[in-house]
Amino acid sequence: MEKLALVTGSTSGIGLGVARSLAEAGYRVVLNGFGTPDAIDSVLSEIGSLSSSEPIYIGTDLTNVFSIEKAISELLSSEGPVSVLVNNAGMQYTAPVDEFPVEKWDQIIALNLSAAFHTTRLCLPAMKEQRFGRIVNIASVHGLVASINKPAYVAAKHGLVGLTKATALETAELNITCNAICPGWTHTSLIQTQIEQRASDLNISEEEGGRALLSEKQPSQQFVTTDQLGELVRFLCTDVASQITGASLPVDGGWTAQ
Ligand code: NAD
């Protein structure tokens, strides 16, 4: 039977890129995230076409711990152990720290950090039992460095890098690895508002707004692609990568080298 790979937030963007790569690698993918029924059907049929096994969809809201517990418990009992867990679901909100809405802080910490703790703690026992597991946390360059107006995001992503190291140490002898990937600007819906804001601030086109974001932080002047991130996750799941654990891997066109 195909190994199960749960990718949170995989109805769009980076998570969808990861789901594609893992389906192509032969995993049975469990998709999660929001979207209209039509959009989710189309993601399910695309992922299904890449693999011999039918993908599964769970629409769980990962800001709610009780929903996570229910969903993972049902998944484990109906489908067996999760071999690959990719904690990818995330959101952004920008404002200075002294103006940051408290409910946005709580939501970002819940989704970008606590959800990964909950899925990890719930999936780990079965990974330990089968003596195999690959956990990949999609952090960010903001897990390594800060930027202005992103206090909750930066705090959550630094926390996720910490959770990655702690999990890696506890599982190091068990053929389980836990790593963080730290992408720079990747052109998805998550950064669309920032591109539009930049375009409107500078009275330029959206394309120029995107280039302005890149020129400020990302020396390659190119967006990271979701395919590149998907392929890195696929590599981390191989036996060749068994000694890579506890790492935070920047994929950022040189952003954090500065
Ligand atoms: P995206 O908006 O395209 O995807 C986010 C995914 O999370 C979607 O599938 C969405 O439905 C899902 N989601 C949102 N709220 C959810 C909730 N409450 N419960 C369950 N699922 C939920 O954005 P993306 O850029 O692909 O972001 C994916 C991850 O990559 C995030 O953790 C983000 O912080 C990280 N990241 C993105 C960039 C970038 O430049 N785009 C850079 C570094 C890190």
What does this molecule look like?
The chain is of the alpha/beta class and 258 residues long. The protein folds into two domains: 4-184 and 225-251, Rossmann fold (3-Layer(aba) Sandwich); 188-223. The chain contains eight helices and seven strands. The chain has helices at 13-24, 37-49, 65-79, 102-130, 151-171, 189-202, 206-217, 226-236; strands at 4-7, 28-32, 56-58, 82-87, 133-138, 176-183, 248-251. Strand 4 (82-87), helix 4 (102-130) and strand 5 form a beta-alpha-beta unit. Helix 1 (13-24) packs parallel to helix 2, helix 1 packs across helix 8 and helix 6 crosses helix 7. The longest helix is centred in the middle third of the chain and has 29 residues, at 102-130. The radius of gyration is 18 Å and the shape is globular. The structure holds nicotinamide-adenine-dinucleotide. Residues 9-15, 32-34, 61-63, 88-91, 111-112, 138, 140, 183, 185-186, 188-191 line the site of nicotinamide-adenine-dinucleotide (NAD). Nicotinamide-adenine-dinucleotide binds at residues 9-15, 32-34, 61-63, 88-91, 111-112, 138, 140, 183, 185-186, 188-191.
